[in-house]
Amino acid sequence: MEVKGKDSKGAAEADAAQLEKWVSGYYPPGWKTADIKERSEPVFPNQMLQYANRKEHCLISGFQLLGLVLAVQQKQISPEQAQGHLLKAIGVCSALPEISDCLRLLGQMD
């Protein structure tokens, strides 16, 4: 997920083109069909990491975001703590970095 709309006009065509370039250049064949526990590729390509660090952007995977929501819902962290993770992170967000963290939280929903 990448949130765009850096000015009053919102996201531009160039933003969409950039995102498409990152996505199409990242996913190797079969990645989407691989079992989630078997994925070993990094979530964010090096080009994206360098840019995010330089611009002080926070990168968070869908699993990390889901994990943060679940952790708040299960009262393991406060909404303020979750917000702090997102606002203080530069580069890859360190909150719940492993897919297994999210899967563990999902298992606690019973």
Task: Please report the total strand number as a whole number.
Answer: 2
Largest sheet: 2 strands, parallel
Q: Oligomeric state of the chains?
A: single chain
Taking all residues together, what is the mean pLDDT? Answer: 79
Report, as a whole number of angstroms, the end-to-end distance: 28 Å
Alpha-beta classification:
mainly alpha
User: Helical region count?
Assistant: 5
- SSE topology string: HHEHHEH
Low-confidence stretches: none
Strand content: under 5%
The outline comes out as globular
Strand arrangement in the largest pleated sheet: 1-2
Radius of gyration, in angstroms, nearest whole number? 15 Å
| Approximate helicity band | 40-55%
Q: What are the SSEs and their pairings?
A:
Layout: H1 13-26, H2 46-55, E1 58-59, H3 62-73, H4 79-88, E2 91-92, H5 99-107
Parallel strand pairs: 1-2
Helix pairs in contact: 3-5
